[in-house]
Amino acid sequence: AVAVAMGWLAAGRASRGLVLLVVFVALLLDNMLLTVVVPIVPTFLYATEYEGANSSAAPAPAAMAPPALEAPPFSSLFSYFDNSTVTVSGSTSSVVNGTGSSVPPQPPASSPPLPSGCPEGDEFLTRENVRVGLLFASKALVQLVVNPSVGLLTNRIGYHIPMFIGFIIMFLSTVMFAFSGTYTLLFIARALQGIGSSFSSVAGLGMLASVYTDDCERGNAMGIALGGLALGVLIGAPFGSLMYEFVGKSAPFLVLAFLALLDGALQLCILQPSKISPESTQGTPLLTLLRDPYVLVAAGALCFSNMGVAILEPTLPIWMMQTMCSPKWQLGMAFLPASISYLIGTNLFGILANKMGRWLCSLVGMAVVGLSLLCVPLARTIYGLIVPNGGLGFAIGMVDSSVMPIMGQLVDLRHTSVYGTVYAIADVAFCVGFAVGPSAGGAVVRAVGFPWLMVGIGAINIAYAPLCWLLRSPPAKDENTAILSQGCPMQTKSYTRPKVPRDFPVTDDSDVEAEHTE
């Protein structure tokens, strides 16, 4: 039995499918943790800070009232000495010419009551937009800083060890979320998640690009891996809202921590994270890739399309609380159409984009993102959010599943086929969207309102969409002058230096075998 298990383990370590499974699970858990906090944090802060402060400042109960209020309720009082007005037991009595007449009490003026189910403290909720936006953006800001270093690290020591480091940090962040009771601790847990996410996403996508060297196979593998990302987004928000409503705040995070342990065990079996396996060739420097206009256009498409859903994460639940009086479980369910359609879009266009043209899918996707965002403020109930959120998720799936393979293809065509740095740039583009979106979105909502925020970010996506046409036929390294001077819409497929496929995992003898093959 031991021999059979060892044989199965050895075969698994050489299987590209199991590598894809490891990356799929890592992206799934990362994005479940990313979105499970979306419906929890606004209502948790409202319950602990606003309602807690008001309950502590509430007046004493009626049982402690002065004894005078317990006197018999006289309706009038006759006086032989004057004709004054006397108040007895809350009623006003006027005595004129020895005759008593009762005047009913007037209730104090007050603001009109809120509809049933609507939370109080509108000003608190408006201020909370900014605080929740900064908390959500902290993960992306930290990830933005860490990503370039992780890309360089993967070029030096390989992808296995950074992948396992990401699992450890993600587990610690999840446990901290479960037991954090203040805004400060939640902020630290969210920032810690950004470090773990940087290691997992950069190492995972770079590993897939190095294992799947064929452009078509790489596109399909990226689509499946992004399906894990989509499934995490799909499950996260509804799972968090239901568990928080019916079980408690800690329950969803403890479940995620248990799943993270299973992912760590899978990585130990498949990836051998104690093994250092650097790339055989020197990767393209980060600054060189950042000066490539085609890389920047692709990264911009990722950034602006994902910025739309990043802005919705902190602002949509609070807007629903104010305008729709939505209960807690609906705050997460509002993202369900976007998550389902994103899952469909990434898996569908991971295959179709290579046939239709990835640049075309990116262009159409960004235009649909803009139109969907313009329609979000038109909703008056949660059912009115189904179509715009569904269109938003489907369009972002089109963009992500098309642009991620383009990033790997651009490196093959125009640079050295080492992928850690370029996928660090792709992850940085995600992070800019998820950092600028929530942090600026909360301030913009407070200044001009939620509808105008949607109009602004929708217009940006529509205006950026035509730039994806530049990705139609990116020139190869040695063909820049010829292709640009011809101006013909050819789809470049040639590689400057074909890379010999290597078995996975990389061993010390792989480079010698590659040289003999060449």
How is this structure best described in words?
This is VMAT1 protein. It is a multi-pass membrane protein. It is found in: Cytoplasmic vesicle, Secretory vesicle, Synaptic vesicle membrane. The chain has 518 residues and is an all-alpha fold. The chain has a single domain, classed as Growth Hormone, Chain: A, CATH 1.20.1250.20. 69% of the residues lie in helices and 3% in strands. It has a three-stranded antiparallel β-sheet with strand order 1-2-3, with no helix packed on it. The protein is globular. The chain starts with a helix and ends with a helix. About 14% of the residues have low confidence.
Summarize the structure.
Helices cover 69% and strands 3% of the residues. It is mainly alpha-helical. The protein has one domain (1-50, 121-479): MFS general substrate transporter like domains (Growth Hormone, Chain: A).
Please state the overall shape, judged from the principal axes of the Cα atoms. globular
CATH fold naming: Growth Hormone, Chain: A
Biggest beta-sheet profile: 3 strands, antiparallel
E-strand count: 3
